[in-house]
Every structure is written in structure tokens, then in C-alpha cells.
Amino acid sequence: MNASLRHPFVGHAAIVALFVVSVGVTRVAYIAPREHEAQNLRADGARLHAELEDVESGLREMDGWARAHPGQDLWSFHVRRALPSGEMTAAFLRAIVPIAERHHVATELIQPAGLPADVTVTDTAGNPITYRKAELRFRLIAEYQDLGEYLSEVETMDQLVVVRSVSLRQEGAKRPALAAEVLIWLYGTPEGPGR
What we know:
Alpha-Beta Plaits, six-stranded mixed β-sheet, 6 strands, 49% helix
């Protein structure tokens, strides 16, 4: 029995078993937690890289805006917003009343020009955005300067609107007033189920 314990094979087997156990303990105690930490660091690195790309994209947009609007302060720039589509027309009509009064513009007619429709556009980051677009046709009476100031102020409202077209004609009996046929596009965010 004593001879079998001193046999080199048994000693080598004990050393190999001790080595295997120590490798397993090392793997469980040191390597596995480090691998898990490395995976977490890679995930954090990917997230930070995406955030960095987003910030760089924003900086490029700010630089592009500054080149397109020389002399204007980016931090005081006012961003227009799209209201929910159920509120956009009523809010627009309420907002233009004081503008029309301020610029002495009389409104003879307001009517929809077609049905509201969804339109998809691409933002500066390349992401698709869907808006609900409504078209309103106005017949306005005003002097040339007043009409220009009115339309300029309408286009710079908080609400996302576009003065799409203006057709002018002289009002014979109401000189120097002009009659203007104006098409305005209102943009809102779609509402309803699944939106």
C-alpha cells in the first residue's frame, strides 16, 4: 500500500487533479467575473459610442444651421412645433385673429382645400416622421405692406404652418387694398388608435 502511494503515476494524478481544481477555482473566482465585466464595458462602450454619434450629429446640424442663418443666435432660435391634429386647425385660427387685427387684414373666406392627409418626411437625422397635413384656403383683403407683414408673422408662428401660395389681385372699389387668395398648410401629429 505504501508503495502504491509512492508510485509516480499517483503523484502526477494528484498534481493534475490539484491543477484542474485550481484552474476551475481561478475561472470561477477571477475569469468569469472579469468576462462579465468586460461584456458590460463593451455594452457601455457601444451605448456611449451611439450617444457620441448623436452628439456629433447634433453639432453638425448646429453648424449647418449657423451657416444657413448667419448673424442669428442659435440659442435664441425658436423651434416651431406640430400640434396634435385634432387641435391644429382650431389653434391656428385662434392664433391668427390677433395677427390679422394687428396688421389690418380682413378675412372674407376660410375653407378647407381637400381632406387632411398623412405625409411622411425625413428629419435631418434621416429618420422618417409622419405628420397630418391640412390645407386651408383664405381670401384676405389688405394693403400690400400689411398683407406681407401678416403672412410673414403667420409663417413664424409657434405652430408648424407653411404659407404655400399667394395669389394677388387689385380690389377696384377698395383701393389701395388687395384681395389675396392664400393657401396655408397646417401640420399636426397624427392621432387615433395605433398612433
